[in-house]
Specification:
Structural class: mainly alpha
Distance between the termini: 8 Å
Largest sheet: none
Order of helices and strands: HHHHHH
Radius of gyration: 19 Å
CATH class: Mainly Alpha
Number of strands: 0
Shape: elongated
Oligomer: single chain
Length: 182
Amino acid sequence: MSAAAKAARSLFERKLDDLQRAIEDAQQMHRKQLALKARGSVDYDRGVHVAALSQTIQSLYTRLESILKDLLRTSGEDVPDTSAWHRDLLLLASTEQADLRPKIISEPQRDGLGRLLAFRHAVRNAYVSELRGDEVTRNADEAFQLLPQVIGSLRSHVLWFFGESGDGMPQRTADRLGHAGD
């Protein structure tokens, strides 16, 4: 594997590890807030909890979307540049590209990410006072279940792309990265 391919693989692995840690931190924050609420603690503030949780889910989704864009670019694909590029990105990632790559994410993952995308847009365009706690919690629960599954799919794709699947991918990877023969 070329030096460029090794560096790219390492970068993807670090980004996925960072995202996994961010999810775990968000889950811990959410559990602590729920424990404060259950105890009836004066330290619990519903508005702060809802705001923190909604912004965290938005941030996690945005980080995941960035990794997806980078994976597509690395494989030589164009990232959608349309008015609906966020949805188009999910569609592209869940579609096999003949002679290029398998699906990166499954259709159920795409559908779940689509719901999180809709939530992200709602959060970005709402005042904190407009956010409903039950809706935020429902989306957080979905994110905490879905995102680790998607990370697993992305890890599998990185392994495939950088040649761990045993299908001769390392040479194609080096070719795409412009370092054939390194």
